[in-house]
């Protein structure tokens, strides 16, 4: 029985990584026609309606008290703030490059979990951080000189921190069904994103291009509803830093899709920096010595 549950969790983890690979590319297509925060509001607002309908069909109870507050806070950290930053950054940054920087998430998650006394610190995490930071430096040596705005770079890093803290937060919250948690979280996030869109003066209109409709459909049904239910399913069964390993695999899928669909150039800095980041994440968050596995 335990092995069957482990295989199910591993399958959910693999599916999460694969499906997430198309998200950044979809956002790039959405941003070409829709203002960034309005596009994010439309995505998560629609996804929240779908999830609320699923809740009704499944007859799931709406959370109350601490569970409701926790689900709302999770929504702000996992959807609202990070995707506001990500949508802004992806106006100027290619999807593969953005996802590669987000590969730092497992390391950030591990360090936050250690700081909040949920996991033990390991020396390999420090080594991995150095390798991953070197990879980021290689990739952004030209952008920081002017090609890519500094604020776009900082926005991606801010998204990374929010995703990591959300993963750690889930371990402390009252357990809520993944569909319910995401329904409340995305509803909260959509309100925040819509307010930000209004403040930014976005034009609220529906897409006209078929490519934008296809991208939005993917982002709502696959990249929000299905993806985050699977991710939360994994988070409830694995440690926060282990579940965040999904960000190691996602950049590879995104880079391939972005080169195919979005003409992303495979520059030398990207090709040199990506292996460093992925190696750093592997050493710092994936590779565990036998005694580490025994202790867990």
UniProtKB/TrEMBL annotation:
<feature type="transmembrane region" description="Helical">
    <location>
        <begin position="243"/>
        <end position="261"/>
    </location>
</feature>
<feature type="transmembrane region" description="Helical">
    <location>
        <begin position="213"/>
        <end position="234"/>
    </location>
</feature>
<feature type="domain" description="EamA">
    <location>
        <begin position="12"/>
        <end position="140"/>
    </location>
</feature>
<dbReference type="InterPro" id="IPR050638">
    <property type="entry name" value="AA-Vitamin_Transporters"/>
</dbReference>
<feature type="transmembrane region" description="Helical">
    <location>
        <begin position="67"/>
        <end position="90"/>
    </location>
</feature>
<feature type="transmembrane region" description="Helical">
    <location>
        <begin position="182"/>
        <end position="201"/>
    </location>
</feature>
<keyword id="KW-1133">Transmembrane helix</keyword>
<dbReference type="GO" id="GO:0016020">
    <property type="term" value="C:membrane"/>
</dbReference>
<feature type="transmembrane region" description="Helical">
    <location>
        <begin position="40"/>
        <end position="60"/>
    </location>
</feature>
<dbReference type="InterPro" id="IPR037185">
    <property type="entry name" value="EmrE-like"/>
</dbReference>
<feature type="transmembrane region" description="Helical">
    <location>
        <begin position="150"/>
        <end position="170"/>
    </location>
</feature>
<feature type="transmembrane region" description="Helical">
    <location>
        <begin position="121"/>
        <end position="144"/>
    </location>
</feature>
<dbReference type="InterPro" id="IPR000620">
    <property type="entry name" value="EamA_dom"/>
</dbReference>
<feature type="domain" description="EamA">
    <location>
        <begin position="153"/>
        <end position="283"/>
    </location>
</feature>
<keyword id="KW-0472">Membrane</keyword>
<comment type="similarity">
    <text>Belongs to the EamA transporter family.</text>
</comment>
<feature type="transmembrane region" description="Helical">
    <location>
        <begin position="267"/>
        <end position="287"/>
    </location>
</feature>
<protein>
    <recommendedName>
        <fullName>EamA domain-containing protein</fullName>
    </recommendedName>
</protein>
<keyword id="KW-0812">Transmembrane</keyword>
<dbReference type="Pfam" id="PF00892">
    <property type="entry name" value="EamA"/>
</dbReference>
<feature type="transmembrane region" description="Helical">
    <location>
        <begin position="96"/>
        <end position="114"/>
    </location>
</feature>
